[in-house]
């Protein structure tokens, strides 16, 4: 079934619908959000977009293992040792690979709806953007019986991995994941469709008085206003991408906003 969807008509609606969901006990992760500049896009990972249609699970796993092997063999040439995982934990290696643009089965999320809004509105002002929101605890509860006592790390490289999605957080954050309040979701099966798997896990628990997941459309006509307001809150490229990359991005955003 399709995700529950709501079209936001204003910044005020955004704050009422999403801003309040981030409040509560700061030690408990209440929701995760993902902003995408095109509302027509589904929740596809970079690896999923890269692999050819109809590929077998065995072949996909072989390609994925090969990508990790090559990255591990060469990453030390480009990255300082403190940025590299100290062991063989493939989840940690995927997180580093994801950070540097390699295709993985991970999806990036944030615990801040305002950070998600930034990614939904900063680009593609000719199309509507979207924020996807999920409840991590609901995903954990749905996954528990499917894992049958196994840890996620023990099933992700199996051809018969169950159809589930789990949120994960990194043990060692980069400056970017800290700035973006980042987290990830991973499908246990390499070819798992996170869009439909999250829907299947969440839909039975979605009640009128209990929100667990949804998709919020930000119309293209109000994207510039959102970006203006986010900049006033210091939610900008300069803050979310520490370093020279963020400086360049922030100047581009400033020029776009200044030309309105």
Short précis:
This protein has 260 residues and is of the alpha+beta class.
- How many E strands? 7
Q: How many individual helices? A: 11
Evaluate the radius of gyration: 19 Å
Largest sheet: 4 strands, mixed
Unreliably modeled segments = none
* Strand arrangement, major sheet: 1-7-4-2
Distance between the termini: 39 Å
Helix content percent band: 40-55%
Oligomeric state of the chains present here:
single chain
Note the overall shape.
Answer: globular
Structural class: alpha+beta
Provide the β-strand percentage band: 5-15%
Report on the structure:
The chain is built from eleven helices and seven strands. Helix 5 packs across helix 9. The N and C termini lie far apart (39 Å). The chain has 260 residues and is of the alpha+beta class. The chain has helices at residues 11-17, 46-50, 57-78, 90-99, 113-121, 136-147, 175-179, 194-202, 223-232, 237-240, 244-258, and strands at residues 5-7, 32-36, 106-110, 129-134, 165-168, 182-187, 213-218. It has one domain (5-221). The model has no long low-confidence stretch (mean pLDDT 88). It has a four-stranded mixed sheet. Strands 3-6-5 form a three-stranded antiparallel sheet.
């Amino acid at each position: 079934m399709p995700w529950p969807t709501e079209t936001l008509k204003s910044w005020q609606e955004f704050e009422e619908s999403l801003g309040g969901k981030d409040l509560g006990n700061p030690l408990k992760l209440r929701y995760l959000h993902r902003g995408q500049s095109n509302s027509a896009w589904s929740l596809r990972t970079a690896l999923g977009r890269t692999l050819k249609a109809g590929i077998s699970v065995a072949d996909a796993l072989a390609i994925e293992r090969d990508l990790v092997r090559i990255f591990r063999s060469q990453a030390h040439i480009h990255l300082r040792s403190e940025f590299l995982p100290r062991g063989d934990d493939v989840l940690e290696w995927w997180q580093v690979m994801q950070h540097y643009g390699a295709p993985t089965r991970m999806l990036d999320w944030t615990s801040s709806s305002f950070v998600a809004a930034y990614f939904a509105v900063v680009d593609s002002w000719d199309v509507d953007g979207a924020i996807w929101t999920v409840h991590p605890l609901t995903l954990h509860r749905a996954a528990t019986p499917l894992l049958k006592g196994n840890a996620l790390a023990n099933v992700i490289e199996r051809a018969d991995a169950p159809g589930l999605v789990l949120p994960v957080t990194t043990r060692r954050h980069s400056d970017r994941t800290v700035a973006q309040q980042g987290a990830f979701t991973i499908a246990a099966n390499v070819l798992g469709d996170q869009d439909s798997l999250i829907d299947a896990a969440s839909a039975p628990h979605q009640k009128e008085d209990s929100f667990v997941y949804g998709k919020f459309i930000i119309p293209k006509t109000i994207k510039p206003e959102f970006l203006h307001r986010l900049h006033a809150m210091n939610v900008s490229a300069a803050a979310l991408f520490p370093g020279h990359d963020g400086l360049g991005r922030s100047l581009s955003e400033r020029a776009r906003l200044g030309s309105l």
